[in-house]
Amino acid sequence: MSETPILDNHLHLDPVNGRGAEAAAEFADAGGTHLLVLNKPSWYFVDDVDGVEAFRETFEITCEVVEDATEELDGRAWPVLGVHPALISRLVEDGYTPAEARDLMQSGLEVAAEFVADGPALAIKSGRPHYEVDDDVWAAANEVMRHAFELGSETGCAVQLHTEGGEDFEEVAEWAEDRGLPRERVVKHYSGGPVEGPIPSVIANKDALEAAASEDGPFLMETDFLDDPERPGAVLGPKTVPRRVRWLTEQGYEDALRTAHVDTPARVYGIDTEATLDE
After folding, report:
1. Domain containing residue 200: CATH number
2. Domain range spanning residue 160?
3. Separation of alpha carbons 271 and 184, rounded Å
4. Tens digit of pLDDT for each residue in 140-185?
5. Nearest CA among 58, 203, 190 for reference residue 121
6. Which strands form 123-127's sheet, in the order they lie side by side?
7. Could you give the CA distance from residue 67 to residue 227 in angstroms, rounded to a whole number?
8. In what helix (H) or strand (E) does residue 160 lie, and over which residues does it extend?
9. Does 1 map to a domain?
10. DSSP assignment of 11-39, as one string?
């Protein structure tokens, strides 16, 4: 299976509380070759998020574990860095106004953009709460997300989104385009199949993947593995994407698999999974 790239587009590696690069080795043993590693929310690594240094520390921890993960792979891993949208609720609960929380989260995204501009990171992560919040919190969260699009445009990188569920994100794609970021550089994490607007990063269960593979459109595959020792295997374990690649091959979806693991990564992130596999 290592003769062709197999990319998990969204998982977490936690070298402080979880398995870290050991989980990347498990992915590789199952046939996986490439990883996009998202930093876990900052509250897993720092006690208080009260300034940009808390974000910087979180990003540095993630970049270090990505280097270790790359040593386990036939291909390589890349960091995707950003601010989890649920942080806005934590900050408001701690006494921040929504505007103050927005400003702090936007400053964290600016640090993430520095990591992209300086080379270690591949893309930015942002989004908005996937649960019900007050209108002023929702408005502030959308401003954070739109700022991520501006930063993506400035640095020339993609933006992964953690949002509510659904299929219609046309408005979000238009917000990105209005800020100079092409919609094909916006990725909807944890998609249940095709979506309107961004590129779907499809959670690796069979129904969702078959829905995406059956359509002639770009998509990516992910596990959203959390690397949480209290929830082993959550959301899906690191072996899942290679196993689903094998299953999709048996179902006759070879062209769709090339789309997910070669063509779409090149289109969205500008990475060559075949060339990096040969290195």
Report:
1. 3.20.20.140
2. 7-267
3. 14
4. 999 999 999 999 999 999 999 999 999 999 999 999 999 999 999 9
5. 58
6. 7-11, 34-38, 77-82, 123-127, 159-162, 186-191, 199-203, 220-222
7. 17
8. strand 159-162
9. no
10. E---TTTS-THHHHHHHHHTT--EEEEEP
